[in-house]
Amino acid sequence: MRRLLRHLLLALLALALSACSAPSARKGPPRLGDLGKQTEPALDKLTIAAPAPATVNPQLALDNYRKLLETKGSDADPKLSAEALRRIADLQVQIADERSDESTNSKAVADSIGIYEKLLNEHPDDPKNDSALLQLARAYENNGDTDGAIRTLLRLEHDFPQSSLAPDAHFQAAQLLFSQKRYTAAEKEYATAVAYGPASPFHDAAQYKYGWSLFKQSEYDEAIAQFLSLLDHTLPANVSDDPETALGQVPKNHADVARDSLRAISLSFSELGGPSAINTYFAQRHEPRFAPLLYSSLGASFLEKRRFSDAAQTYAAFIARQPLDPHAPAFQARVISAYEDGGFTESIVTEKERYAKAYAPDAPYWNGRVANPDVLKELRRQLEDVAKYHHALAQHDPKDHGGEFLVAAGWYRNILKIYPKDPQVTAIDLALADALLDAGQTRTAADEYLHTAYDRPRTDKSADAAYAAVQTYERYAQEVAPDHKNEALMLAAAASVKLADTFPSHPQKLKVLTRAAENLYTTGDREHAITAAAIVEDEQPAAPADLLRSAWAVTADSQFALGHYKEAEAAYAQLQKLIPVADPAYKTAVDQLAASIYKQAAAARAGGDFAGAARRFELVGQNAPSASIRATADYDAAAAYIQAKNWASAERLLESYTARYPDTTLGGEIDKKLSVVYQNDNKSYAAALVYQRIAAHATETTQIRRDSAWLAAQLYDQSQHDDEAMQAYQGYLAQYPQPIDQALTARQRLADMAHARHDDAAYETWLRAVIATDEQAGPQRSSRTRALAARALLETGRMQAHAADAVPLTLPITKSLPARKSATETAIATLNRAANYGFTDVATAATYELGSLYQRFGQALLKSERPRNLKGDEADQYELLLEEQAEPFDEKAIKTYEINMQRIRSNVYDEWVSKSLAALAVLAPAKYGKQELKDTSYDRLH
């Protein structure tokens, strides 16, 4: 290897070609090459810089010097000869460097060594011996004798300490010692070379290798100091804390040194203990201006070795030492990155959280300053990562009861707080809502979904958030206490309507609107429920059948609840079409349709429109024939027709009712109404039949059965169905002897019907029953019972009088007269009883009948059978005797008739008074015969 200096070559060549001159000075430090990439420096890269290329031929110069010595021979000047030999030796070393023939080179170098040794021995005081020693050392090195080279260089240092070549000698000696791993000796030589100061062309290279020498001896603290010093004047101001960026800022001629210095420092701190060592080091010494770069470089070196924890701890060490340094956020990011590279999940999250807390805009780190945009950008990423981590952790932990979800929610909120205009704000808000929902904060989650959907910038997630809000409010409604349920349902409904309005093309629009309608109905907001349902009902193309069904159900039920029964009827009719007949809901729809019609009918009835009500009631059966309420509607239709006096329609419905509803419990009521209809339609016999059925209903009260039995008898009577009437009256009396008034009337009617068919025996029996009923009435006896009894006595008296009249006065008169007299007295007693009841019309009739009875008795005497054997005077005497016997009866008749005449004074004048007057005109013509009835007064007749 060519290691010796070449700076003398130009001077030797120049001397050979022109004149003598001093050796040229070295123009710069040795090149360091790629030392930064090696564990220890390559010595061939640390030689003195080559001089500028020579334009002369070294071999030609060498030949010329030899000719010079040959020509002069012994006559040559000793000094000139010595200089020529020196230059011959220099040129042979140079040529050996340039040739590849090792045998030739070795011979030439050995020859040169001999020349240098000879010159040094022969001219020990030559001031140029420093240069000769340097070249000799080079020759030894080229000849493979490193120790000889070292001894020669040390001799130069010793013999010529003030030589300008001394720095070079120390540096080259150090290099050779270093190559032999004699680091302690090399350290001393490097230190001496460095001591010459920055002006020395070897300063930087010497300092660099000085540091390495210390490093090789594990003198890391001292090694670091050298490398730091080297970097201090190598690195520019405001150098980056990133190694690659920083090295890119270094001039190219210093880049390799800077790179290797950084590496050496990192290796040193690594040996000293890594993260803790660097902080300890700077705690005890002055911290360089580029300290962030050192921490960064050390961390990077650990990363290269996949020592991820050490790298992270190194970055963290810088933050611990300089927590407020502008580079701190970047180092925290590196901490995170190191753990990410190593896959340390928990540490990653911990450090991300640390970053988020330490460098948030309101963190103490900023001390009121505006946060750095780069930090904010990194903070944004860390916040989201932390939030998503906790969110995912919660989702995969079945035992988590919301804790991690709430932690995630907190981080999502931080993002939204710090970055309100972030492009992903909608997605973050949506994630926040998801976390809140999973944490069990349903209401808060629903509000957040709503906020995401409508208050954040519109994205492709906005519609999803809107739908999530609806679903979450629905869920909230299922969770709240009953007294808050309506409020929750209203929130769900409002969210649904907002979704439909804001996202008209949303695939769930109709579904949420339908549900909104149902919720509004549940809360009692019927009007808005109808509005929401109408949107679904009017949708084109038509909404799915299940949604239409629900919508129409809401509309129908809402209209019904609002009392809009006509609208409810139409809605239920639509709903009925959407439900399969086999579905249990079909019957409900039919029943509600019927109820809507029924309500309209009831309203008409309440308003007095009975005819309209009846028609609406009938529509129940026409439009909803299977409705549960149909029987009631049919019944009420009939009742309304009755109130409207539409007897024919009422009859039609009532007559078919029991046939249509054989199991009805309204049979009695139907009969009652039907009986009224028949009565009002002048169908007495039909009404009587119905009343008779009512009277037989065991479920009816005694009062109703009694009244119905009574009415049946009366209606049979009115319809002239005498047999049924008689049976009805008799049946009534047998079952209901009370009240007296109706019982008495029944007996009276039975008497009248017996009289009408000339059944005198039955007639008299029922008359006596009337009389007995009154006599036994006790507290129930009334003027009416007494009046009926009085008339019954009158009729009985008449019948007795008629019976008395039927007793003939035949011979022997002594036998027939007592019988006639007895019968007459019976009649008289009965008639007097009738007159004594105090009823004028009965009294006048009874008085007249008494007078007529007396009068007829007298006439009967006069017309009685005469004995056949009487002739002449006997016959006359017999006639006179009969006249005498008859005359008192005429007088009694007159007096009796006159009783009626006395009643005229009391303004009583009736048929019987008139007949009495007529009878008096016959019996007492002188007194009464000439008086007209209208002119007659009691005073004039007295």
Overview of the structural elements:
This protein starts with 8 loop residues before the first helix and ends with a helix. The protein is built from 44 helices and no strands. Among the domains are: 1-217, Serine Threonine Protein Phosphatase 5, Tetratricopeptide repeat; 227-343, no CATH class; 816-942. The radius of gyration is 74 Å and the shape is rod-shaped. It has 942 residues and is an all-alpha fold.
Percent of residues in beta strands: under 5%
CATH topology of the domain at 1-217: Serine Threonine Protein Phosphatase 5, Tetratricopeptide repeat
Structural class: mainly alpha
Name the poorly predicted regions.
1-54, 933-942
Query: Globular, elongated, flat, extended or rod-shaped: what is the shape?
Result: rod-shaped
Rg from Cα:
74 Å
| Main sheet summary | none
CATH superfamily of the domain at 1-217: Tetratricopeptide repeat domain
CATH 2nd-level architecture of the domain at 1-217: Alpha Horseshoe
Give the integer mean of the pLDDT values: 86
Strand element count: 0
Give the count of helical stretches. 44
State the share of residues found in helices, binned by percent.
over 70%
> Tell me, what is the CATH class of the domain at 1-217?
Mainly Alpha
Report how far apart the termini are: 198 Å
Helices and strands in order, then pairings?
Layout: H1 9-17, H2 58-72, H3 78-98, H4 102-122, H5 129-142, H6 146-159, H7 166-179, H8 183-195, H9 203-216, H10 220-232, H11 243-248, H12 252-272, H13 275-284, H14 291-304, H15 308-321, H16 328-342, H17 345-358, H18 373-395, H19 403-418, H20 425-438, H21 442-455, H22 462-479, H23 482-502, H24 509-523, H25 526-538, H26 545-562, H27 565-577, H28 584-606, H29 610-623, H30 630-643, H31 647-660, H32 667-680, H33 684-696, H34 702-718, H35 722-735, H36 740-756, H37 760-775, H38 783-805, H39 813-835, H40 840-862, H41 872-902, H42 911-923, H43 925-929, H44 938-941
